[in-house]
Amino acid sequence: IITKGTDVTSQFTIQQAGTTITATMTSQALAAARSLATPMQYTLLIGGKANYANGKGAAQVRADAGKKATDEVEFCADPTTGAALNSHGLKNKGSESAAGKTKTTNEPYVCGYVPPVAKAVISEASQGGDQDDINGKSVMPGQKLEYELTSEPTIPNNLSYAIESVAFTDTYDQYLELDKQTIELRDLETGRTISKKNYTLTADTEKHEFT
Question: What is the H or E stretch that residue 203 is in?
C-alpha cells in the first residue's frame, strides 16, 4: 500500500484529540466516491514511535511498574482479555463509520521492554582505595573516583526488530574532572576488557556526559 497506493490525504480532514486520530472524508471526495464503478479501499497510515510513560522515560516506566530505579522491566497485555501481565501493553484500536454504521477493528498490541542498569561509585585503587562502593561518603579535593555503569539484560525473545547498536551514556557531576584515558568497557561473562577498536567514545563536556 505504501509503495503502490495513491496518496489521498487531501481528500480527508484529519484531526487529533488526545490519542485518537480521526480522518473524515471531505464532501467533494465523498460525492466522487459515490459514483465509483468499483469499491475503493482506503488505508489510514499513522506513523510514530514508542513513547513510554508519555515521554517521561525509563525512570517513570520503572516507577509505574513498581520497580526499583535499577530494575529490568518487561510489560505487556493479554491479547485476549487485555488484562495486564506485568504492567500494561501498548494497545491500538480503530473503527470505520459510513452510512450511519460503525465497524470496529481488532486491537493489536505490542509489548515494552526497559533493560536494567545500575551505577556505582568506587574508591580508586591507585590512591589506596579498596574499590568498595563509597556512595554517600566524603572525598577530599583531588582524590580519584571510579564510576561503574552496569547492565545485564535478559533480552526478550519476541523483539520486533533486531538490535543493531548498544550505547552506554553516563552523566557525571560538574565538579568531576573526567579522565577519558581510564574509560573502559568490560565483558561481564568473560571478565575481559573490550578492545577500543570495537566501540567509539564521544564526550560532551558542556553536558558532563559521555557515550
Answer: strand 203-204
What does each C-alpha distance from 93 to 47, 84, 200 come to in angstroms? 14, 17, 42
Can you say how many angstroms the Cα of residue 76 is from the centroid of all Cα atoms in its chain? 14
CA separation for the pair 44, 79 (Å, rounded): 22
Describe the strand order of the beta sheet including 203-204 as a list of residue ranges: 170-171, 209-210, 203-204
pTM assigned to the model = 0.71
Locate all alpha helices (DSSP H) within 35-187, ordered by sequence.
57-64
Four-CA torsion 198, 199, 200, 202, nearest 10 degrees: -150
pLDDT tens column, 140-163? 888 888 888 899 998 888 888 889
Q: Tens digits of per-residue pLDDT, 168-193? A: 998 888 888 888 888 899 998 898 99
Q: Domain ranges for the chain, please list them.
A: 1-47, 50-114, 119-211
